[in-house]
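Summary for the steering committee. The consortium agreed at its last meeting that each partner would contribute one worked example illustrating the joint modelling workflow. Our contribution is presented below. We chose a case with several input lines so that the handling of multiple components could be demonstrated. No manual editing was applied between input and output; the record is shown as generated.
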Amino acid sequence: MTELCVKDLSVTAHGKSLVDRANFVLKPGEFVALLGPNGAGKTSLVRAALGLARPAFGTARLDGEDTARLSPGQRARQIAYLPQVRPLAWPSRVRDIVALGRFSHGAAAGRLSHADAEALDHALSACDLTHLSQRRADTLSGGELARVHCARAFAAKAPLLVADEPTAALDPRHQFRILDLVRRFVSDGGGALVIMHDVALAARYASRLIWMKDARILADGPPGETLTPALLEDIYGVRAQVRGDDVTLTGAV
Amino acid sequence: MSAGRWLTPALAVASLAGVFAACLIGSTPLPAGRILAAFLGSGEAGDRLVVWVIRLPRALAAFLVGAALGISGAALQGLLRNPLAEPGVLGVSASASLAASFAIYYGLVALSPWVLPLAAILGALVATGLLTIAAIRTRSVVTLILIGVGLSSFAGAAMSLLMNLAPNPFSLSDMVNWMLGSVANRSFADIALALPFLAVGAVILMTTRRGLSALTLGEEAASGLGLDLRAQRIWTVLGAGLATGASVALAGAIGFVGIVAPHLIRPLVGHDPARALLPSALLAGLILVLADIGVRLAPTASELKLGVVAALIGAPAFIWIAMQRRALHD
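What follows is the complete predicted structure of the assembly.
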Protein backbone atom coordinates (compact mmCIF):
# COMPACT_ATOMS: atom_id res chain seq x y z
CA MET A 1 0.00 0.00 0.00
CA THR A 2 1.43 3.34 -1.08
CA GLU A 3 1.56 5.91 1.67
CA LEU A 4 2.74 9.51 1.60
CA CYS A 5 4.13 10.51 4.97
CA VAL A 6 5.04 14.15 5.57
CA LYS A 7 7.07 14.91 8.67
CA ASP A 8 8.01 18.35 10.03
CA LEU A 9 8.10 19.66 6.48
CA SER A 10 9.11 23.33 6.27
CA VAL A 11 9.50 25.53 3.21
CA THR A 12 11.01 29.00 3.17
CA ALA A 13 11.43 31.41 0.28
CA HIS A 14 13.17 34.78 0.40
CA GLY A 15 13.48 34.51 4.16
CA LYS A 16 9.74 34.02 4.60
CA SER A 17 8.29 30.83 6.01
CA LEU A 18 5.76 29.36 3.58
CA VAL A 19 5.24 26.06 5.36
CA ASP A 20 6.11 25.60 9.01
CA ARG A 21 6.65 22.04 10.31
CA ALA A 22 3.75 20.36 8.60
CA ASN A 23 2.84 16.77 9.42
CA PHE A 24 0.27 14.56 7.72
CA VAL A 25 -0.18 11.14 6.18
CA LEU A 26 -2.06 10.29 2.98
CA LYS A 27 -3.22 6.70 2.56
CA PRO A 28 -5.24 4.87 -0.08
CA GLY A 29 -8.97 4.94 0.59
CA GLU A 30 -8.82 8.48 1.96
CA PHE A 31 -10.28 11.63 0.44
CA VAL A 32 -8.41 14.43 2.15
CA ALA A 33 -9.31 18.08 1.54
CA LEU A 34 -6.63 20.67 2.23
CA LEU A 35 -8.32 23.94 3.20
CA GLY A 36 -7.17 27.41 4.12
CA PRO A 37 -7.22 31.03 3.02
CA ASN A 38 -5.22 32.30 0.05
CA GLY A 39 -1.52 32.43 0.84
CA ALA A 40 -1.79 29.90 3.69
CA GLY A 41 0.89 27.75 2.06
CA LYS A 42 -1.27 24.94 0.66
CA THR A 43 0.37 24.78 -2.75
CA SER A 44 3.86 25.15 -1.25
CA LEU A 45 3.15 22.26 1.11
CA VAL A 46 1.92 20.04 -1.70
CA ARG A 47 4.86 20.87 -3.98
CA ALA A 48 7.39 20.15 -1.27
CA ALA A 49 5.60 16.93 -0.35
CA LEU A 50 5.87 15.83 -4.01
CA GLY A 51 9.56 16.66 -4.12
CA LEU A 52 9.00 19.46 -6.66
CA ALA A 53 10.22 22.15 -4.24
CA ARG A 54 13.16 21.80 -1.89
CA PRO A 55 12.09 21.80 1.75
CA ALA A 56 14.14 23.84 4.22
CA PHE A 57 13.60 21.16 6.81
CA GLY A 58 11.73 17.92 7.33
CA THR A 59 10.93 15.05 4.99
CA ALA A 60 8.23 13.71 2.72
CA ARG A 61 8.42 9.96 2.24
CA LEU A 62 6.64 7.71 -0.18
CA ASP A 63 6.71 4.21 1.25
CA GLY A 64 9.76 5.22 3.26
CA GLU A 65 11.59 6.72 0.27
CA ASP A 66 12.29 10.46 0.24
CA THR A 67 10.20 11.97 -2.59
CA ALA A 68 12.99 14.41 -3.46
CA ARG A 69 15.29 11.42 -4.11
CA LEU A 70 12.89 9.61 -6.41
CA SER A 71 13.34 10.14 -10.12
CA PRO A 72 10.54 12.24 -11.64
CA GLY A 73 9.23 9.13 -13.39
CA GLN A 74 9.25 6.95 -10.27
CA ARG A 75 7.38 9.62 -8.34
CA ALA A 76 4.85 10.22 -11.13
CA ARG A 77 3.99 6.49 -11.23
CA GLN A 78 3.12 6.67 -7.51
CA ILE A 79 1.43 10.07 -7.29
CA ALA A 80 -0.56 11.74 -10.05
CA TYR A 81 -0.33 15.50 -9.66
CA LEU A 82 -2.85 18.00 -11.02
CA PRO A 83 -1.49 21.52 -10.52
CA GLN A 84 -3.70 24.57 -10.86
CA VAL A 85 -4.89 24.63 -14.43
CA ARG A 86 -2.86 26.76 -16.83
CA PRO A 87 -3.82 27.38 -20.43
CA LEU A 88 -2.49 24.73 -22.80
CA ALA A 89 0.39 25.77 -25.02
CA TRP A 90 -1.12 24.11 -28.10
CA PRO A 91 -4.66 23.19 -29.12
CA SER A 92 -3.94 19.47 -28.77
CA ARG A 93 -6.48 16.72 -29.15
CA VAL A 94 -8.24 15.43 -26.02
CA ARG A 95 -6.95 11.91 -26.55
CA ASP A 96 -3.34 13.13 -26.84
CA ILE A 97 -3.63 15.18 -23.64
CA VAL A 98 -5.05 12.27 -21.67
CA ALA A 99 -2.32 10.05 -23.16
CA LEU A 100 0.23 12.33 -21.47
CA GLY A 101 -0.94 10.74 -18.24
CA ARG A 102 0.99 7.67 -19.41
CA PHE A 103 4.21 9.71 -19.79
CA SER A 104 5.87 8.18 -16.74
CA HIS A 105 5.18 4.73 -18.20
CA GLY A 106 7.19 5.64 -21.29
CA ALA A 107 4.30 6.38 -23.62
CA ALA A 108 4.29 9.01 -26.36
CA ALA A 109 1.21 10.31 -28.13
CA GLY A 110 1.82 8.29 -31.27
CA ARG A 111 3.27 5.26 -29.48
CA LEU A 112 1.07 3.58 -26.88
CA SER A 113 1.59 0.10 -25.50
CA HIS A 114 -1.39 -2.16 -24.96
CA ALA A 115 -1.47 -1.24 -21.25
CA ASP A 116 -1.23 2.46 -22.11
CA ALA A 117 -4.11 2.27 -24.58
CA GLU A 118 -6.23 0.36 -22.08
CA ALA A 119 -5.59 2.86 -19.26
CA LEU A 120 -6.26 5.70 -21.69
CA ASP A 121 -9.61 4.33 -22.87
CA HIS A 122 -10.63 3.54 -19.32
CA ALA A 123 -9.81 7.07 -18.13
CA LEU A 124 -11.64 8.62 -21.09
CA SER A 125 -14.80 6.65 -20.43
CA ALA A 126 -14.63 7.17 -16.65
CA CYS A 127 -14.55 10.92 -17.19
CA ASP A 128 -17.25 10.74 -19.88
CA LEU A 129 -14.91 11.99 -22.60
CA THR A 130 -15.03 9.15 -25.11
CA HIS A 131 -17.24 11.13 -27.49
CA LEU A 132 -14.87 14.13 -27.22
CA SER A 133 -11.61 12.23 -27.64
CA GLN A 134 -10.84 13.63 -31.13
CA ARG A 135 -11.83 17.20 -30.25
CA ARG A 136 -9.26 20.00 -30.02
CA ALA A 137 -8.77 21.28 -26.49
CA ASP A 138 -9.47 24.88 -27.48
CA THR A 139 -13.02 23.94 -28.49
CA LEU A 140 -13.90 22.57 -25.04
CA SER A 141 -15.79 24.31 -22.25
CA GLY A 142 -14.11 24.92 -18.89
CA GLY A 143 -15.97 22.00 -17.35
CA GLU A 144 -14.98 19.62 -20.14
CA LEU A 145 -11.36 20.74 -19.91
CA ALA A 146 -11.35 20.09 -16.17
CA ARG A 147 -12.55 16.55 -16.89
CA VAL A 148 -9.74 16.14 -19.44
CA HIS A 149 -7.18 17.03 -16.78
CA CYS A 150 -8.78 14.59 -14.33
CA ALA A 151 -8.72 11.90 -17.00
CA ARG A 152 -5.02 12.36 -17.66
CA ALA A 153 -4.34 12.08 -13.93
CA PHE A 154 -6.39 8.87 -13.73
CA ALA A 155 -4.72 7.46 -16.85
CA ALA A 156 -1.45 7.33 -14.92
CA LYS A 157 -2.99 4.61 -12.72
CA ALA A 158 -1.04 5.98 -9.77
CA PRO A 159 -2.26 4.90 -6.34
CA LEU A 160 -2.26 8.48 -5.03
CA LEU A 161 -3.65 11.70 -6.46
CA VAL A 162 -2.79 15.26 -5.48
CA ALA A 163 -4.95 17.97 -7.03
CA ASP A 164 -4.58 21.71 -6.59
CA GLU A 165 -7.99 23.40 -6.82
CA PRO A 166 -9.41 21.12 -9.53
CA THR A 167 -12.82 22.78 -9.13
CA ALA A 168 -11.63 26.39 -9.43
CA ALA A 169 -13.72 28.51 -11.82
CA LEU A 170 -16.24 25.72 -12.46
CA ASP A 171 -20.02 26.01 -12.14
CA PRO A 172 -21.66 24.07 -9.26
CA ARG A 173 -22.70 21.12 -11.44
CA HIS A 174 -19.18 20.64 -12.77
CA GLN A 175 -17.70 21.03 -9.29
CA PHE A 176 -19.88 18.09 -8.21
CA ARG A 177 -18.91 16.08 -11.29
CA ILE A 178 -15.19 16.56 -10.71
CA LEU A 179 -15.45 15.68 -7.04
CA ASP A 180 -17.60 12.65 -7.92
CA LEU A 181 -14.74 11.48 -10.15
CA VAL A 182 -12.24 11.91 -7.32
CA ARG A 183 -14.59 10.09 -4.96
CA ARG A 184 -14.86 7.18 -7.38
CA PHE A 185 -11.05 7.11 -7.64
CA VAL A 186 -10.89 6.86 -3.83
CA SER A 187 -13.58 4.18 -3.57
CA ASP A 188 -11.62 2.18 -6.17
CA GLY A 189 -8.73 2.12 -3.71
CA GLY A 190 -6.89 5.37 -4.43
CA GLY A 191 -5.90 8.08 -2.01
CA ALA A 192 -6.57 11.73 -2.86
CA LEU A 193 -5.35 15.01 -1.44
CA VAL A 194 -7.36 17.90 -2.89
CA ILE A 195 -6.80 21.58 -2.25
CA MET A 196 -10.20 23.24 -2.05
CA HIS A 197 -11.77 26.58 -1.25
CA ASP A 198 -15.41 25.55 -0.89
CA VAL A 199 -15.78 24.46 2.73
CA ALA A 200 -19.28 23.06 2.25
CA LEU A 201 -18.20 20.87 -0.69
CA ALA A 202 -15.10 19.72 1.16
CA ALA A 203 -17.19 18.72 4.17
CA ARG A 204 -19.57 16.81 1.93
CA TYR A 205 -16.95 14.84 0.00
CA ALA A 206 -13.81 14.51 2.11
CA SER A 207 -13.21 11.88 4.73
CA ARG A 208 -10.62 14.11 6.36
CA LEU A 209 -9.98 17.84 6.41
CA ILE A 210 -6.57 19.44 6.86
CA TRP A 211 -6.81 23.10 7.85
CA MET A 212 -3.95 25.48 7.14
CA LYS A 213 -3.32 29.09 8.06
CA ASP A 214 -0.18 31.21 8.03
CA ALA A 215 2.07 28.34 6.92
CA ARG A 216 0.86 25.99 9.65
CA ILE A 217 -1.52 23.08 9.86
CA LEU A 218 -4.01 24.04 12.58
CA ALA A 219 -6.24 20.97 12.48
CA ASP A 220 -6.39 17.57 10.81
CA GLY A 221 -9.32 15.20 11.18
CA PRO A 222 -12.73 14.05 9.92
CA PRO A 223 -15.29 16.78 9.18
CA GLY A 224 -17.30 15.74 12.25
CA GLU A 225 -14.39 16.63 14.53
CA THR A 226 -12.67 19.57 12.88
CA LEU A 227 -15.53 21.44 11.25
CA THR A 228 -16.55 23.85 13.99
CA PRO A 229 -17.64 27.51 13.95
CA ALA A 230 -14.68 28.33 16.17
CA LEU A 231 -12.17 26.84 13.69
CA LEU A 232 -13.81 28.54 10.71
CA GLU A 233 -13.60 31.86 12.53
CA ASP A 234 -9.97 31.20 13.34
CA ILE A 235 -8.99 30.10 9.81
CA TYR A 236 -11.03 32.35 7.54
CA GLY A 237 -12.39 35.04 9.87
CA VAL A 238 -15.99 34.11 9.03
CA ARG A 239 -19.11 33.33 11.06
CA ALA A 240 -20.60 29.92 10.29
CA GLN A 241 -23.39 27.58 11.30
CA VAL A 242 -22.47 23.90 11.35
CA ARG A 243 -24.95 21.00 11.51
CA GLY A 244 -23.15 17.71 11.06
CA ASP A 245 -21.47 17.86 7.61
CA ASP A 246 -23.65 20.77 6.63
CA VAL A 247 -22.01 24.16 6.90
CA THR A 248 -23.38 27.61 6.10
CA LEU A 249 -21.15 30.64 6.07
CA THR A 250 -23.13 33.65 7.24
CA GLY A 251 -20.67 36.54 7.05
CA ALA A 252 -17.30 38.02 7.86
CA VAL A 253 -16.30 38.49 11.47
CA MET B 1 -3.71 11.26 -36.80
CA SER B 2 -4.35 9.78 -40.22
CA ALA B 3 -2.48 12.74 -41.74
CA GLY B 4 0.55 11.86 -39.63
CA ARG B 5 1.01 8.50 -41.31
CA TRP B 6 1.48 9.74 -44.87
CA LEU B 7 2.95 13.11 -43.96
CA THR B 8 6.55 12.10 -43.33
CA PRO B 9 6.91 9.69 -46.32
CA ALA B 10 5.22 12.24 -48.61
CA LEU B 11 7.56 15.00 -47.48
CA ALA B 12 10.57 12.71 -47.87
CA VAL B 13 9.59 11.91 -51.46
CA ALA B 14 8.93 15.59 -52.18
CA SER B 15 12.32 16.51 -50.74
CA LEU B 16 14.09 13.97 -52.95
CA ALA B 17 12.18 15.30 -55.95
CA GLY B 18 13.12 18.86 -54.94
CA VAL B 19 16.82 18.03 -54.71
CA PHE B 20 16.66 16.30 -58.10
CA ALA B 21 14.85 19.29 -59.60
CA ALA B 22 17.54 21.57 -58.19
CA CYS B 23 20.12 19.48 -60.09
CA LEU B 24 18.18 19.97 -63.33
CA ILE B 25 18.29 23.73 -63.14
CA GLY B 26 21.27 26.00 -63.59
CA SER B 27 23.15 28.46 -65.76
CA THR B 28 24.06 25.68 -68.20
CA PRO B 29 20.82 24.12 -69.46
CA LEU B 30 21.11 20.33 -69.40
CA PRO B 31 18.32 17.93 -70.44
CA ALA B 32 17.00 15.57 -67.74
CA GLY B 33 18.41 12.52 -69.54
CA ARG B 34 21.97 13.80 -69.33
CA ILE B 35 21.49 14.79 -65.69
CA LEU B 36 20.25 11.28 -64.88
CA ALA B 37 23.19 9.76 -66.72
CA ALA B 38 25.60 11.99 -64.83
CA PHE B 39 23.91 11.01 -61.56
CA LEU B 40 24.51 7.34 -62.29
CA GLY B 41 28.16 8.02 -63.07
CA SER B 42 27.95 7.66 -66.85
CA GLY B 43 27.57 10.57 -69.27
CA GLU B 44 30.11 13.23 -70.14
CA ALA B 45 32.75 14.30 -67.66
CA GLY B 46 31.53 17.91 -67.88
CA ASP B 47 28.00 16.87 -66.99
CA ARG B 48 29.23 14.81 -64.06
CA LEU B 49 31.19 17.81 -62.84
CA VAL B 50 28.16 20.09 -63.05
CA VAL B 51 25.93 17.62 -61.20
CA TRP B 52 28.31 16.16 -58.61
CA VAL B 53 30.50 19.18 -57.86
CA ILE B 54 28.21 22.16 -58.36
CA ARG B 55 24.52 21.41 -58.27
CA LEU B 56 24.08 18.41 -55.97
CA PRO B 57 26.22 19.73 -53.08
CA ARG B 58 24.43 23.05 -53.30
CA ALA B 59 20.97 21.44 -53.25
CA LEU B 60 21.96 19.10 -50.41
CA ALA B 61 23.39 22.01 -48.44
CA ALA B 62 20.13 23.93 -48.87
CA PHE B 63 18.15 20.89 -47.75
CA LEU B 64 20.36 20.18 -44.70
CA VAL B 65 20.37 23.81 -43.60
CA GLY B 66 16.60 23.98 -43.89
CA ALA B 67 16.15 20.66 -42.09
CA ALA B 68 18.42 21.78 -39.23
CA LEU B 69 16.53 25.06 -38.84
CA GLY B 70 13.16 23.34 -39.14
CA ILE B 71 13.84 20.76 -36.45
CA SER B 72 15.52 23.34 -34.18
CA GLY B 73 12.62 25.73 -34.62
CA ALA B 74 10.02 23.05 -33.91
CA ALA B 75 11.94 21.86 -30.82
CA LEU B 76 12.48 25.37 -29.42
CA GLN B 77 8.82 26.13 -30.00
CA GLY B 78 7.94 23.02 -28.01
CA LEU B 79 10.37 23.83 -25.21
CA LEU B 80 9.36 27.49 -24.90
CA ARG B 81 5.70 26.74 -25.75
CA ASN B 82 5.61 29.51 -28.31
CA PRO B 83 5.10 29.31 -32.09
CA LEU B 84 7.34 32.35 -32.62
CA ALA B 85 10.43 30.81 -31.05
CA GLU B 86 13.00 30.15 -33.77
CA PRO B 87 16.78 30.27 -34.07
CA GLY B 88 16.64 33.37 -36.29
CA VAL B 89 14.12 35.39 -34.28
CA LEU B 90 15.73 34.50 -30.96
CA GLY B 91 19.15 35.63 -32.11
CA VAL B 92 20.68 32.13 -32.14
CA SER B 93 21.61 32.26 -35.82
CA ALA B 94 22.94 35.81 -35.49
CA SER B 95 25.11 34.80 -32.51
CA ALA B 96 26.39 31.80 -34.45
CA SER B 97 27.32 33.91 -37.45
CA LEU B 98 28.93 36.47 -35.15
CA ALA B 99 31.12 33.75 -33.65
CA ALA B 100 31.94 32.48 -37.15
CA SER B 101 32.85 36.00 -38.33
CA PHE B 102 34.97 36.44 -35.22
CA ALA B 103 36.90 33.31 -36.14
CA ILE B 104 37.36 34.61 -39.69
CA TYR B 105 38.35 38.09 -38.52
CA TYR B 106 41.10 36.84 -36.25
CA GLY B 107 42.29 34.31 -38.78
CA LEU B 108 41.47 31.39 -36.46
CA VAL B 109 39.99 29.53 -39.42
CA ALA B 110 43.50 29.00 -40.77
CA LEU B 111 44.24 26.71 -37.81
CA SER B 112 41.91 23.93 -38.85
CA PRO B 113 38.86 23.49 -41.08
CA TRP B 114 36.93 22.48 -37.93
CA VAL B 115 37.36 25.92 -36.32
CA LEU B 116 34.58 27.52 -38.33
CA PRO B 117 31.80 25.03 -37.59
CA LEU B 118 32.90 24.80 -33.96
CA ALA B 119 32.85 28.59 -33.59
CA ALA B 120 29.37 28.79 -35.11
CA ILE B 121 28.13 26.02 -32.85
CA LEU B 122 29.66 27.67 -29.80
CA GLY B 123 27.92 30.93 -30.68
CA ALA B 124 24.62 29.10 -31.12
CA LEU B 125 24.98 27.24 -27.81
CA VAL B 126 25.79 30.42 -25.87
CA ALA B 127 22.71 32.10 -27.31
CA THR B 128 20.35 29.16 -26.68
CA GLY B 129 21.79 28.78 -23.18
CA LEU B 130 21.17 32.46 -22.38
CA LEU B 131 17.64 32.19 -23.72
CA THR B 132 16.90 29.15 -21.60
CA ILE B 133 18.13 30.91 -18.48
CA ALA B 134 15.90 33.84 -19.42
CA ALA B 135 13.01 31.44 -20.00
CA ILE B 136 13.43 29.99 -16.52
CA ARG B 137 13.45 33.44 -14.94
CA THR B 138 10.59 34.98 -16.84
CA ARG B 139 7.32 33.22 -17.52
CA SER B 140 6.29 35.83 -20.03
CA VAL B 141 6.70 34.71 -23.59
CA VAL B 142 6.70 38.30 -24.84
CA THR B 143 9.65 39.13 -22.59
CA LEU B 144 11.51 36.12 -23.91
CA ILE B 145 10.99 37.09 -27.54
CA LEU B 146 12.15 40.61 -26.68
CA ILE B 147 15.29 39.20 -25.08
CA GLY B 148 15.86 37.23 -28.28
CA VAL B 149 15.38 40.37 -30.34
CA GLY B 150 17.86 42.15 -28.09
CA LEU B 151 20.34 39.31 -28.48
CA SER B 152 19.87 39.41 -32.23
CA SER B 153 20.42 43.19 -32.32
CA PHE B 154 23.52 42.89 -30.18
CA ALA B 155 24.98 40.18 -32.41
CA GLY B 156 24.13 42.36 -35.41
CA ALA B 157 25.84 45.36 -33.85
CA ALA B 158 28.95 43.38 -32.97
CA MET B 159 28.95 42.06 -36.52
CA SER B 160 28.79 45.60 -37.89
CA LEU B 161 31.70 46.50 -35.65
CA LEU B 162 33.75 43.63 -37.05
CA MET B 163 32.87 44.71 -40.60
CA ASN B 164 33.70 48.30 -39.73
CA LEU B 165 37.13 47.18 -38.58
CA ALA B 166 37.61 44.61 -41.33
CA PRO B 167 41.26 44.59 -42.39
CA ASN B 168 40.65 43.92 -46.08
CA PRO B 169 37.81 43.63 -48.60
CA PHE B 170 38.11 39.82 -48.68
CA SER B 171 37.20 39.32 -45.05
CA LEU B 172 34.50 41.96 -45.48
CA SER B 173 32.88 39.99 -48.27
CA ASP B 174 33.25 36.77 -46.24
CA MET B 175 31.39 38.40 -43.38
CA VAL B 176 28.64 39.74 -45.64
CA ASN B 177 28.15 36.14 -46.76
CA TRP B 178 27.67 35.02 -43.15
CA MET B 179 25.20 37.77 -42.47
CA LEU B 180 23.07 37.28 -45.54
CA GLY B 181 23.19 33.50 -45.79
CA SER B 182 23.82 31.53 -48.96
CA VAL B 183 24.52 27.98 -50.13
CA ALA B 184 26.21 29.02 -53.37
CA ASN B 185 29.49 27.20 -54.15
CA ARG B 186 29.20 24.73 -51.30
CA SER B 187 31.15 21.50 -51.70
CA PHE B 188 30.78 18.04 -50.25
CA ALA B 189 33.77 18.90 -48.08
CA ASP B 190 31.87 21.84 -46.55
CA ILE B 191 28.90 19.57 -45.95
CA ALA B 192 31.13 16.92 -44.36
CA LEU B 193 32.37 19.46 -41.81
CA ALA B 194 28.88 20.51 -40.73
CA LEU B 195 26.99 17.24 -41.08
CA PRO B 196 28.31 15.41 -37.98
CA PHE B 197 27.21 18.23 -35.67
CA LEU B 198 23.94 18.63 -37.48
CA ALA B 199 23.22 14.90 -37.27
CA VAL B 200 24.10 14.67 -33.56
CA GLY B 201 21.88 17.70 -32.84
CA ALA B 202 18.99 16.20 -34.78
CA VAL B 203 19.37 12.82 -33.06
CA ILE B 204 19.39 14.51 -29.63
CA LEU B 205 16.23 16.43 -30.49
CA MET B 206 14.52 13.32 -31.85
CA THR B 207 15.36 11.13 -28.85
CA THR B 208 14.19 13.73 -26.32
CA ARG B 209 11.10 14.84 -28.22
CA ARG B 210 8.62 13.06 -25.95
CA GLY B 211 9.18 15.63 -23.21
CA LEU B 212 8.12 18.42 -25.55
CA SER B 213 4.64 16.90 -25.69
CA ALA B 214 4.48 16.87 -21.90
CA LEU B 215 5.37 20.57 -21.83
CA THR B 216 2.10 21.29 -23.64
CA LEU B 217 0.53 21.25 -20.16
CA GLY B 218 3.02 23.78 -18.76
CA GLU B 219 6.18 23.18 -16.76
CA GLU B 220 4.52 22.44 -13.43
CA ALA B 221 2.18 19.84 -14.85
CA ALA B 222 4.95 18.38 -17.02
CA SER B 223 7.08 17.88 -13.89
CA GLY B 224 4.07 16.24 -12.29
CA LEU B 225 3.84 13.86 -15.25
CA GLY B 226 7.36 12.70 -14.51
CA LEU B 227 9.36 14.92 -16.87
CA ASP B 228 12.87 15.83 -15.74
CA LEU B 229 12.56 19.50 -16.67
CA ARG B 230 16.23 20.32 -16.22
CA ALA B 231 17.40 17.48 -18.43
CA GLN B 232 14.80 18.34 -21.04
CA ARG B 233 15.97 21.96 -21.20
CA ILE B 234 19.62 20.98 -21.45
CA TRP B 235 19.05 18.39 -24.19
CA THR B 236 16.79 20.58 -26.29
CA VAL B 237 19.15 23.56 -26.03
CA LEU B 238 22.12 21.37 -26.86
CA GLY B 239 20.38 19.70 -29.80
CA ALA B 240 19.03 22.97 -31.24
CA GLY B 241 22.38 24.70 -30.66
CA LEU B 242 24.31 21.96 -32.47
CA ALA B 243 21.93 21.80 -35.41
CA THR B 244 21.58 25.57 -35.76
CA GLY B 245 25.30 26.17 -35.35
CA ALA B 246 26.06 23.54 -38.01
CA SER B 247 23.55 25.15 -40.37
CA VAL B 248 25.15 28.56 -39.85
CA ALA B 249 28.59 27.06 -40.46
CA LEU B 250 27.30 25.75 -43.77
CA ALA B 251 25.22 28.67 -45.01
CA GLY B 252 25.37 31.63 -42.64
CA ALA B 253 22.29 33.05 -40.98
CA ILE B 254 19.02 32.12 -42.68
CA GLY B 255 15.94 33.23 -40.82
CA PHE B 256 12.26 32.40 -40.49
CA VAL B 257 12.20 29.00 -42.19
CA GLY B 258 12.21 27.51 -38.66
CA ILE B 259 8.96 29.33 -37.93
CA VAL B 260 7.13 28.84 -41.19
CA ALA B 261 7.65 25.07 -41.62
CA PRO B 262 6.52 24.01 -38.11
CA HIS B 263 3.58 26.40 -38.34
CA LEU B 264 2.37 24.61 -41.48
CA ILE B 265 3.03 21.16 -40.01
CA ARG B 266 1.41 21.55 -36.57
CA PRO B 267 -2.25 21.31 -37.64
CA LEU B 268 -1.41 18.11 -39.56
CA VAL B 269 0.03 16.34 -36.49
CA GLY B 270 -2.65 17.31 -33.97
CA HIS B 271 -0.47 20.16 -32.63
CA ASP B 272 1.79 17.66 -30.88
CA PRO B 273 5.29 19.20 -30.62
CA ALA B 274 6.97 15.78 -30.64
CA ARG B 275 5.30 14.59 -33.81
CA ALA B 276 5.98 17.94 -35.50
CA LEU B 277 9.79 17.59 -35.41
CA LEU B 278 10.54 15.25 -38.31
CA PRO B 279 7.95 16.61 -40.78
CA SER B 280 9.04 20.19 -39.91
CA ALA B 281 12.64 19.28 -40.70
CA LEU B 282 11.69 17.77 -44.06
CA LEU B 283 9.37 20.62 -45.02
CA ALA B 284 11.89 23.31 -44.03
CA GLY B 285 14.56 21.50 -46.06
CA LEU B 286 12.23 21.34 -49.05
CA ILE B 287 11.33 25.03 -48.69
CA LEU B 288 15.00 26.05 -48.79
CA VAL B 289 15.74 23.79 -51.76
CA LEU B 290 12.85 25.42 -53.65
CA ALA B 291 13.86 28.91 -52.49
CA ASP B 292 17.40 28.25 -53.70
CA ILE B 293 16.05 27.17 -57.09
CA GLY B 294 14.17 30.48 -57.14
CA VAL B 295 17.35 32.34 -56.26
CA ARG B 296 19.16 30.74 -59.18
CA LEU B 297 16.33 31.39 -61.64
CA ALA B 298 15.78 35.01 -60.61
CA PRO B 299 17.02 37.25 -63.45
CA THR B 300 19.13 39.53 -61.27
CA ALA B 301 22.55 40.97 -62.13
CA SER B 302 24.25 39.45 -59.10
CA GLU B 303 22.73 36.35 -57.53
CA LEU B 304 20.30 36.96 -54.68
CA LYS B 305 21.35 35.56 -51.32
CA LEU B 306 19.19 32.68 -50.07
CA GLY B 307 18.93 34.26 -46.62
CA VAL B 308 17.60 37.47 -48.13
CA VAL B 309 14.88 35.61 -50.03
CA ALA B 310 14.01 33.53 -46.95
CA ALA B 311 13.63 36.71 -44.89
CA LEU B 312 11.59 38.46 -47.59
CA ILE B 313 9.10 35.56 -47.53
CA GLY B 314 9.48 34.61 -43.87
CA ALA B 315 9.23 37.97 -42.13
CA PRO B 316 5.69 38.71 -43.38
CA ALA B 317 4.73 35.14 -42.37
CA PHE B 318 6.17 35.81 -38.92
CA ILE B 319 4.04 38.95 -38.56
CA TRP B 320 0.98 37.05 -39.75
CA ILE B 321 1.51 34.23 -37.23
CA ALA B 322 2.10 36.75 -34.45
CA MET B 323 -1.12 38.58 -35.27
CA GLN B 324 -3.10 35.35 -35.18
CA ARG B 325 -2.09 34.59 -31.63
CA ARG B 326 -4.74 35.33 -29.09
CA ALA B 327 -3.90 37.56 -26.12
CA LEU B 328 -4.90 34.63 -23.90
CA HIS B 329 -1.71 32.77 -24.65
CA ASP B 330 0.53 35.48 -23.26
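The two ends of chain A are 43 Å apart (CA to CA). DSSP finds nine helices and twelve strands in chain A.
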